Amino acid sequence: LWRELPSQPNKTMLLAVIGDPIVHSKSPVMHNAALAALGIEGEYFPLHVSREDLGSAISRIRELGFRGINVTIPHKVDVMAYVDRIDDSASRIGAVNTILNENGILTGYNTDGIGYVRSLKDETQVDLRGKSIMVLGAGGAARGIIYALAQEEPKTIVIANRTEDKAIQMAEEWKSLVNISAITMDKIEGILPDIDVVINTTSIGMHPKTSQSVIDPEMIPPGIIVSDLIYNPLTTELLKKSHERGCTIHGGLGMFINQGAYALEYWTGMPAPIETMRTAVLKSLQ
Ligand code: ATR
């Protein structure tokens, strides 16, 4: 893929996603559709970059005058060492998924958490202020989301994780921002009756193990909001069962679209064509 890059870029706007693996990324399809809809001459490339090549890849991207980069697994933390500036929220989250290049100065942002929250609010119409939220999992994906949720002034956030220490550490870290606590998985059932929104940030239920669910959906109170970061499948077992129980469900596709939308807005300064982006991704998932 690097070989396909122009040596003398003549497009107005060059964009890329770097990761390993990268072939399955839906970002190129989504952003190329968005550029076309906005009438911007440009192209978004998928670039396979291994851990050893991260530094040289960033130098090359800077030299070639790329306007923007998305960063995905496994580089979201390591890439912070190669940018010139890091936005405050990305720095608190400790991960960068979006880079903006302004005349050779690279700034790192994190649009995963805010993308998730924007999608949750848009798709379920929930007002998170004063709500009680349970986050399942305490890994990298949970970090950005908890940070973004904290900005919405919920009543409380409860982190439930298999390894209690990780949840305790995370709660400790964010306690100056929000009322937050940590529990183990066996305490979930007792607390769920007080919860308004449950969010699965673990990969349990992801393709190909689609029959799995991180918690028994039978214990979810009917009528609450249940959200899953997974978007393959679009509706996980957890969401399917929760829907049958009368819950409002929210899948992970919206997070993916909206993290891309925020990134595109940094790069272009224009509102992202969200519906065009969603249609392009859905078409490529078929
Ligand atoms: P990511 O960056 O995608 O969040 P991660 O940092 O590896 O990935 O975190 C995965 C999360 O899923 C963790 O909270 C993990 O729990 P542990 O901290 O106990 O490892 C959780 N997880 C993964 N597999 C799990 C399983 N089989 N049961 C319960 N939780 C699981």
From TrEMBL:
Residues 252-282 form the SDH C-terminal domain. GO terms for cellular component: cytosol. Residues 17-99 form the Shikimate dehydrogenase substrate binding N-terminal domain. Keywords: Amino-acid biosynthesis, Aromatic amino acid biosynthesis, NADP, Oxidoreductase. It comes from the Bacteria. It catalyses: shikimate + NAD(+) = 3-dehydroshikimate + NADH + H(+); shikimate + NADP(+) = 3-dehydroshikimate + NADPH + H(+); L-quinate + NAD(+) = 3-dehydroquinate + NADH + H(+). Residues 127-203 form the Quinate/shikimate 5-dehydrogenase/glutamyl-tRNA reductase domain. The keyword DNA-binding does not apply. The active site is at K76 (proton acceptor). Pathway: Aromatic compound metabolism; 3,4-dihydroxybenzoate biosynthesis; 3-dehydroquinate from D-quinate (NAD(+) route); Metabolic intermediate biosynthesis; chorismate biosynthesis; chorismate from D-erythrose 4-phosphate and phosphoenolpyruvate: step 4/7. GO terms for biological process: amino acid biosynthetic process; aromatic amino acid family biosynthetic process; chorismate biosynthetic process; shikimate metabolic process. One of its GO terms (molecular function) is shikimate 3-dehydrogenase (NAD+) activity. Shikimate binds at S25, K26, S27, T72, N97, D112, Y231, Q259. Its EC number is 1.1.1.25. NADP(+) binds at D88, G137, A138, G139, G140, A141, N161, R162, T163, E164, D165, K166, L229, G252. Belongs to the shikimate dehydrogenase family. Homodimer. Involved in the biosynthesis of the chorismate, which leads to the biosynthesis of aromatic amino acids. Catalyzes the reversible NADPH linked reduction of 3-dehydroshikimate (DHSA) to yield shikimate (SA). This is Shikimate dehydrogenase (NADP(+)). It comes from Paenibacillus glacialis. The lineage of its organism: Bacteria, Bacillati, Bacillota, Bacilli, Bacillales.
